[in-house]
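[Structure tokenization] protein backbone as discrete codes

[Encoding] learned vocabulary of local backbone shapes

[Begin record] amino acids and matching fold tokens:

___
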Amino acid sequence: MDNVDRLQIENIKNIKIKDKLQKINLKETNGITLAYLGDSVWELFIRKFYIEKNLNIKNLNKKVKAMVNAKKQSEIFEKIFSSLDKEYQELGIRGKNSNIKSFPRSCSPYEYRKATAFEAIIGSLYINNEIDFIENIIKIYAEEEI
């Protein structure tokens, strides 16, 4: 490996994701985009939570599916919404009111809109580096599923 490769690797190591995410303006980002990010963040953090519980793969998949679905996310949204800061409430409402074209059969359109709001909030928390907040939501509601 030559010096140029080593320098590039060092530069990659020094990139701070937090710094990159803070350049995203939440006021200008639409709700669906925030929900898109929040969906992946939520699933990743849920998977991490259950992996840390040392579940076997069968139980791991079952627990993740129980937490990563519109019905459950809709329920959690209803439970946490009133306790959120106004900024996150507004971002959730923006996600909920997004122009959603199609809905899954596994839940009602209203549940799906609330799940989208929840995912927008999770995406917003992630962008603001509020990782502890996301993990606390998971600790409270995923523990119920163990």
Observations:
- The mean pLDDT is 87.
- The two ends are 47 Å apart (CA to CA).
